[in-house]
Design goal:
This protein has about 170 residues and is an alpha+beta fold. About 20% of the residues lie in helices and about 35% in strands.
């Protein structure tokens, strides 16, 4: 008996072209250590919920159950950190209430479908690079991003938005 096919999925704020260009320019302005693996331009995003392996048969119900985005999320991304695992992230110093509301609202929709939620505290961030230990970050000019939409994204040899909500 073969197992049911699954898809590796997540929900994310998906940058518009102008925001993506600023993120990419900011990423490229850093002096990355040898061996750092930069996140590809088309893969830059801010994760809302990582769903992991979801049965493919559940995809239509998931697409239908996800609510439209509410109020725009206004983010100020102003801190570059390298986490102990070597992941370099750009993050807001303060998480805006509209982002926390969207995260909670989406979490409720996922729970209603019986999907498990991440147990770790939510830490909004954009991953700029992996294997970045030793990076001495250049001062970040705060990036102000007004996110009007989020996406259901397939992770399969890169990230592929399946549907946008906004």
């Amino acid at each position: 008996m073969t197992p049911d096919p699954t898809l590796r999925l997540f929900l994310a704020l998906w940058p518009d072209d102008d925001t993506r260009a600023v993120l990419l320019a900011w990423q490229q302005a850093q002096s990355w250590p040898a061996g750092a693996r930069l996140t590809r331009a088309n893969d830059l995003h801010l994760t809302l919920h990582f769903l992991g392996q979801v049965p493919k048969a559940l995809l239509p119900a998931l697409k239908q159950a996800l609510p439209a985005a509410g109020s725009p999320v206004i983010l100020t991304l102003d801190h570059l950190d390298v986490w102990p695992n070597g992941v370099a992230v750009l993050r807001p110093e303060a998480t805006p209430p509209t982002l926390l509301d969207l995260h909670a609202h989406l979490g409720d929709a996922l729970k209603q479908l019986g999907l498990p939620l991440e147990s770790r505290p939510y830490q909004p961030h954009i991953t700029l690079a992996r294997r970045a230990r030793g990076l001495v970050p250049k001062a970040a000019l705060p990036l102000r991003w007004t996110a009007q939409r989020y996406a259901l994204v397939l992770s399969d040899h890169g990230y592929h938005p399946l549907q946008h909500y906004g």
